[in-house]
Amino acid sequence: MLAQLCHARALLDAEDLSIPDVARAAGMSPYHFIRRFEELFGTTPHQHRIAARIDRAKQLLARGAPVTDVCFELGWSSVGTFSALFKRRVGESPSTYGRRARALVAVPGTLPLPLFPGCLSLMGLLPAHAFRSFREA
Question: Degrees (nearest 5) of the Cα angle 42, 46, 47?
Fold first, then answer.
């Protein structure tokens, strides 16, 4: 049963099959599949699919994709519906999220400031003669 449900979750993530089709692939009735899936993963198949789509939308928005393109690429037919659902799930509109996420993106080869270790930033404030060697620093 566990292997069937894990396979079904992979199908939900990878393909745009209906819930009854995924249930059939798992060898269960749709009702039984939904109950077992929720027992095992703590969410219904539909909610799991929505969460995966929202996660993908967050990735695309952080890369600078326009909200309209993200909406239609991930299968929503209305930008308003997508934006309302995104705001309800994430806490901010898709455009606001995209702007905020892009501001946190680092230049390749550098660390973003919020993740830079505090001890290293403090060492940068010390004068050059504060340490006799690199090892002492």
Answer: 50
